[in-house]
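Researcher: Structure for this, please.
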Amino acid sequence: MPSAERGAGSALDIDLDPSLIFAKWTGVAGALLAVSGGPDSLALLLMATIWSRESGTRVFAATVDHGLRPEAAEEAAYVGEIGAALGVPHAVLTWRGPHPKTRIQELAREARYRLLSEHARDVGANVLMTAHHADDQAETILFRLLHGSGVAGLAGIREETQAYGLTLARPLLHLRKPELEQVCADNNVPFISDPSNKDSQYARTRMRELTALLEAEGLGPEQWRRFARRMAGADEVLRRAVSDARAHIAKETSTDSVRLDVQRLKRQPVDVIAGVVEAEITSFLASADSIRLDRLERSAQALREALDGGRIWKGTLAGAILNLDRSGSLTIAKEGPRQRGRGPRKGN
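Model: Predicted structure, token format:
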């Protein structure tokens, strides 16, 4: 366990320019930093402290203790010592209650963001900052590529998104992990090494090994960054096409269904049809299940083929029943309990 006795004083040594790194968020009501004690988040804390002093923007720090490792409480206390030395208020947020036996990483992430967002509101911060960096970006895109993500997923980690009623900011996306480790070293701030980062049972570890191999072949962070930028652009084009298509569709809404004149959609690409169907299901059924991309694409393809042939079609998707008649009218209604689990199917 590192000691906070050295470093993290009032005079910080930062070669990078925090005023540029955090410029986009200068003047916000307040920023809560998610700090685990690793090199990435400690570098975020060190650089954000300088930014706060120079800009007057209020910053806070918080560490989430998931209760999954016995040393987690001691690590959180260490981050608190660093925060105290820097003059940054720090809180330890604990994930309480019974923990699940399966999907532990996914559910721990959900709990982490829930706890952080609640604390951000408590301290008056409207921005939550995490220490995702360029190496995380490469690993994320590769993971999503291998698991069949669409263009939205392949855009990778966005610099800024809106969620949990907050702005989620990732100011370090253009920096590499060794640069962040150097920030800690230059300021005599030891960091904590998470042993799970070397455990190959976790997908993130395997992606890290793969990205290292790909970088040796010339596919490094700059190339991944360019790829993410292009995918984000493609996603924006698709979103606008979907929005335009929806704006030209006549719609009738009742308490238990929505009826759409989708005749025009037969001239649209399948991806646009899929986007329209997804948007309508999501807006109609607030509690809709997560829509799997492969099922959505199959439904959109079947819908377009039925429109082209002037045929009826019926399918189920994410808790909704979809009925297309020969006139090109699509009705979306909530699926009944006995029908759940059936996949989309073609009509006669």
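Researcher: Any notable elements?
Model: DSSP finds eleven helices and twelve strands in the chain. The two ends are 68 Å apart (CA to CA).
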